[in-house]
Amino acid sequence: MKLRFTKMQGLGNDFVVLDGVSQALALSPIQLRQLGDRHFGVGCDQILLVENPHHPDADFRYRIFNGADGGEVEQCGNGARCFVRFVHDRGLTGKRTIRVETARGLITPRLEDNGLVTVDMGAPRFNPAEIPFIAEHEAVSHSIKVAARMVEISAVSMGNPHAVQVVENVDNAPVALEGPIIEHHPLFPERVNAGFMQIASRSEIRLRVYERGAGETLACGTGACAAVVSGIRRGLLDSTVRVHTRGGELSISWAGEGQPVLMTGPAVTVFEGEIEL
Ligand SMILES: N[C@H](CCC[C@H](N)C(=O)O)C(=O)O
């Protein structure tokens, strides 16, 4: 079948975005993996499927699939920014602030006048059962065995699971070695995104993320949210933080327990295309 798509990126985290509102779409895992394949398909970190909502308070439903394995996941921060630009630019809505139903709750992205996008990502969750993370109790950080060493990680859910550690310098952090080990760590039954955070100041961090089902990406929006929340809970960061990723900069704010995380950053349309699947 011929499939029209839009290629987009948020800080180099790239997406194939599909309009499931104007057309009914049901793609198999094989077709999703083909879309995500950078040699035999279009190539992207994630596929974003825009649909009509089931939730009465939502304007749209937003489904996310990791490009490398075609697995459906709960949340995507950079994707949420691209999503609102997509539905606005395609005339699927006239609103600049929309309510979006995701697998783990409602998020509220807003197109700003300056072209950036701010997303209320909802409140982070720390209860191990909600991450999911196998642990006796909730804690700011947990020591887990990774290869030959013990690593202090903060386990956080932004709808999707994150394990964040603090490193001296992200440039020489063991992302390639420890990323896959943490992703598949037995204490994370649904796998996990592995964050490596360098504290530059109380209002600035550098971050690399080895993403579940995608490998290291140039930026991870939910990873930036999870890192800032972890840093604040560890007493290392103030409530608004500039997050420097390899793909560019995000602004993340969190006012504390029970409060939503706000993320602001760019969303760019790269090209429109058509592929035979
Ligand atoms: N790999 C993630 C999904 C994409 C998240 C990331 N691209 C973002 O911007 O939040 C997971 O399996 O939970």
UniProtKB/TrEMBL annotation:
Q: Which UniProt keywords apply?
A: Amino-acid biosynthesis, Cytoplasm, Isomerase, Lysine biosynthesis
Kind of enzyme, top EC level? isomerase
| UniProt-annotated binding residues for substrate | N13, Q46, N66, G77, N78, N160, N193, E211, R212, G221, T222
Keyword Cytoplasm (UniProt): yes
User: Which chain positions carry the site (Could be important to modulate the pK values of the two catalytic cysteine residues)?
Assistant: H162, E211
Q: Where is the active site?
A: C76 (proton donor), C220 (proton acceptor)
Query: How far does the signal peptide extend, from start to end residue?
Result: none
Query: Coiled-coil stretches, from where to where?
Result: none
Pathway stated in the Swiss-Prot or TrEMBL entry:
Amino-acid biosynthesis; L-lysine biosynthesis via DAP pathway; DL-2,6-diaminopimelate from LL-2,6-diaminopimelate: step 1/1
Write down the EC number. 5.1.1.7
Q: Which domain of life is it from?
A: Bacteria
Under InterPro entries, the record lists:
DAP_epimerase_DapF (IPR001653)
Q: Tell me the compartments it is located in.
A: Cytoplasm
Q: Which reaction does it catalyse?
A: (2S,6S)-2,6-diaminopimelate = meso-2,6-diaminopimelate
Keyword flag Cytoplasm = yes
Quaternary structure (record): Homodimer.
Q: What does this protein do?
A: Catalyzes the stereoinversion of LL-2,6-diaminopimelate (L,L-DAP) to meso-diaminopimelate (meso-DAP), a precursor of L-lysine and an essential component of the bacterial peptidoglycan.
Q: Which PANTHER family match?
A: DIAMINOPIMELATE EPIMERASE, DIAMINOPIMELATE EPIMERASE, CHLOROPLASTIC
Q: What family name appears in the similarity comment?
A: Belongs to the diaminopimelate epimerase family.
User: What protein name does the entry list?
Assistant: Diaminopimelate epimerase
Q: Which organism is it from?
A: Chitinimonas prasina
| Recorded name of the encoding gene | dapF
